[in-house]
Amino acid sequence: MVAILLQAAEGVKAAKGCHLYVVCQDATNPDTIWVFETWDSKEDHDNSLKLPGTPEMIAKAMPLIDGKPEGTPLVVAGGLGLF
Amino acid sequence: MVAILLQAAEGVKAAKGCHLYVVCQDATNPDTIWVFETWDSKEDHDNSLKLPGTPEMIAKAMPLIDGKPEGTPLVVAGGLGLF
């Protein structure tokens, strides 16, 4: 799963509006994967899902996920390392 | 609270080993604040807590927090925007 998400991280380099796509394993529960992403807009994020190769990657990843992937939409206030 | 954490984000620029310190508000629950941080080591992170001004910032923030701050230690696998 991590390998697929790292491949996705390579893919989003070509996506408009993506600044961070950081793949992490939960230190306590290594089967839990976190991806922290920042985008200029939700629209940019949604468009990236149509990039060549992305639907195939998602299809490869979905069977590996136990249950439904969870997501928490956030609003970036600022900080270090954003751009 | 966001303002204090953004001040902390400025402060960690002087800290050894900090690459990301991103302050976010939960889009659904704006009273919930998320900070995504990446460090070269836990030691670097712990040392940053002793930087001049940091204890005072923590003291200012703690009364604003409802209950205990939660944290999820992660292991970075890789991705876009890390360095």
From TrEMBL, chains A, B:
<dbReference type="Pfam" id="PF03992">
    <property type="entry name" value="ABM"/>
</dbReference>
<dbReference type="InterPro" id="IPR007138">
    <property type="entry name" value="ABM_dom"/>
</dbReference>
<keyword id="KW-0503">Monooxygenase</keyword>
<dbReference type="InterPro" id="IPR011008">
    <property type="entry name" value="Dimeric_a/b-barrel"/>
</dbReference>
<dbReference type="GO" id="GO:0004497">
    <property type="term" value="F:monooxygenase activity"/>
</dbReference>
<keyword id="KW-0560">Oxidoreductase</keyword>
<feature type="domain" description="ABM">
    <location>
        <begin position="1"/>
        <end position="75"/>
    </location>
</feature>
<protein>
    <submittedName>
        <fullName>Antibiotic biosynthesis monooxygenase</fullName>
    </submittedName>
</protein>
